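Troubleshooting log. The previous structure file for this entry was overwritten by mistake, so regenerating from the original sequence record. Sequence copied from the archived sheet and checked twice against the printout by T.R.
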Amino acid sequence: MTDETTSQTEDYAGTSSRQRAIEAYDSARERVSGTLGEAPLIALAGGLAAGALIAALLPRTEAETRAVRPTAKRVKQTARAAYQAAKDTGSQRLDELGINRSKGEETIRSLLDGVTDAAKASGQAALDAARKG
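Regenerated output below.
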C-alpha cells in the first residue's frame, strides 16, 4: 500500500525534465496573463522598466550619439541656467533678509564671544565661591 505523497514523488521523478519545463512555462504563462488582465498598468510599467534596463546595457551607436548630442547639449545648458537663476534669486532673497556670509560670520563671532564671557564669569564665580567657602 502506497500513500499519496510517495505516489506523487514517483510521478514527479518519472516525468522528464522537458515535461517539467513545459509545465512550468505553462504555469508561468497563465499567471502572467492573469496579471495582465488584472493590472495592465503595472505590466506596462514593468515592461518599460525592463526595456530601459536593456537599453542602458546596450552600447550606444554612433548614429544615436549624433542624434542625441544636440538635445543633451540643450538640456545641460537649460539646467545650468536654471541652477544659476535659482542660486542668484536665493542669494538675493537672503541678502534682503540680512542673511549673508558676513552676517553669519559676525553672528558666530558674537556667539563665541558670548560663550567665552560666560565661561570666564562661571570660572570667576566658582573661584570666588571656593575662596569664601
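The two ends are 100 Å apart (CA to CA). Archived copy saved in two places this time.
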